[in-house]
């Protein structure tokens, strides 16, 4: 029996759990009589024909590893001349019957457009930010929250010892999921997120109230995309755009810390967690979620449910249209922020 060949790629920023998804796709595909071809560096590998056969042996020992054995990129075939045609030529030349795209809004938007051009494709949602539509949670989010929570725990003891305010900046370009979850879990004294524009005065009130009650340190958690009014209206603090047109964030914690120190006289320090939130081994929960997505993705290929994406709804893994993932950002659940805010100040 000739096997249907399925190409797997990972695109966009890396994310803990990608290897768990790849391993699960390969293992389930074996059961479903599918052959798996790993595409190097996202969509770029499909244009430039860089790939390798993925066997059970090749994916052995990768479940717990961070990064992606396939490499990733932000390459967009629609941004180059003949890009989509080259992708389709590669698929035909290598007799590939289906594609599984693992990625965020960009990678899955490309998948959606390729599907519209007739490519048999399914998706898997990926991002530590947890801001993709169509699914309750994305893998990688739990790991990022765990790392940020551990950091907040550690910062508590040093902040208390020195009677300082520490402003911790976490990832979250457009949403405050990581900030709210890690802030709640770490007992933050204020949390700043994009979804709830805040005035710096509110943060200072929390810090001052604590000081009056004898608690001379505070921990402020801040999403990199937080909207904070520092006196000129609530706005994003951006350092321009990267080569892909993404806003380069980072710096909001510094501005918030500067304002707090200036107004309260309390020594204030900044910690920007950055890429440690994205690197390294996934939590058990992300390994489980990534594996469930991978098994579902292979099942979607086997049952030819093109144009769909594996998603989590409640505790069920289901198939949703690819368009659901990319239609709009999934903003932070306001109920989570409301619970976290009970503990502010
Ligand atoms: N709506 C869109 N339609 C087509 N291509 C898009 C769209 N949005 C982004 N892209 C392109 O998709 C590529 C990958 O997007 P991006 O870098 O945002 O990765 P991603 O998969 O969304 O992961 P991340 O979680 O890191 O954002 C980029 O080249 C980007 O230009
Ligand atoms: O520098 P890069 O790779 O674009 O990644 C930064 C971005 O990655 C994200 O974590 C999404 O994966 C965003 O929160 C952050 O802005
Ligand atoms: Mg994106």
Report on this model:
- The active site is at 129 (proton acceptor).
- It catalyses: beta-D-fructose 6-phosphate + ATP = beta-D-fructose 1,6-bisphosphate + ADP + H(+).
- GO terms for molecular function: 6-phosphofructokinase activity; AMP binding; ATP binding; diphosphate-fructose-6-phosphate 1-phosphotransferase activity; fructose-6-phosphate binding; identical protein binding; metal ion binding; monosaccharide binding.
- There is one protein chain.
- The protein has two domains: 4-140 and 282-326, Rossmann fold; 144-278, 3-Layer(aba) Sandwich (Rossmann fold), CATH 3.40.50.
- The protein contains eleven helices and 14 strands.
- With 345 residues, the chain is of the alpha/beta class.
- The model has no long low-confidence stretch (mean pLDDT 95).
- Helix 1 links the parallel strand 1 and strand 2.
- 6-O-phosphono-beta-D-fructofuranose is lined by residues 13, 127-129, 171-173, 224, 246, 249, 278.
């Amino acid at each position: 029996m000739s096997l249907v060949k399925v190409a797997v790629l990972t695109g966009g920023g890396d994310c803990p759990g990608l290897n768990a998804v790849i391993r699960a796709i390969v293992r389930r595909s074996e059961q479903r009589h599918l052959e798996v071809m790993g595409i190097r560096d996202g969509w770029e590998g499909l244009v430039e024909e860089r790939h390798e056969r993925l066997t059970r042996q090749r994916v052995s020992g990768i479940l717990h590893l961070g990064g992606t054995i396939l490499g990733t990129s932000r390459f967009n075939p629609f941004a180059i001349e003949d890009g989509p045609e080259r992708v389709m030529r590669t698929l035909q030349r290598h007799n590939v019957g289906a594609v599984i795209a693992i990625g965020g809004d960009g990678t899955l938007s490309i998948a959606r457009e390729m599907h519209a051009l007739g490519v048999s494709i399914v998706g898997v949602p990926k991002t530590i930010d947890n801001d993709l539509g169509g699914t309750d949670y994305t893998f990688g989010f739990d790991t990022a929250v765990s790392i940020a929570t551990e950091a907040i725990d550690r910062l508590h003891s040093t902040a208390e010892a020195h009677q300082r305010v520490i402003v911790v900046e976490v990832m979250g370009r457009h949403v405050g999921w990581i900030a709210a979850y890690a802030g709640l879990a770490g007992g933050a004294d204020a949390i700043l997120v994009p979804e709830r524009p805040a005035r710096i005065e509110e943060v200072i009130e929390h810090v001052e109230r604590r000081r009056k009650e004898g608690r001379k340190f505070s921990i402020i958690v801040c999403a990199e995309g937080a909207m904070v009014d520092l006196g000129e209206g609530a706005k994003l603090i951006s350092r321009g755009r990267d080569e892909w047109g993404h806003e380069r964030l980072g710096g909001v914690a510094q501005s918030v810390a500067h304002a707090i120190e200036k107004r309260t006289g309390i020594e204030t320090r900044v910690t920007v967690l950055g890429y440690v939130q994205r690197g390294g081994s996934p939590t058990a929960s992300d390994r489980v979620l990534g594996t469930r997505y991978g098994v579902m993705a292979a099942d979607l290929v086997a049952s030819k449910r093109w144009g769909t994406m594996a998603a989590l709804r409640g505790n069920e893994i289901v198939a949703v249209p690819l368009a659901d993932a990319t239609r709009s950002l999934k903003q932070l659940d306001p109920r989570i922020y409301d619970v976290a805010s009970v503990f502010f100040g």
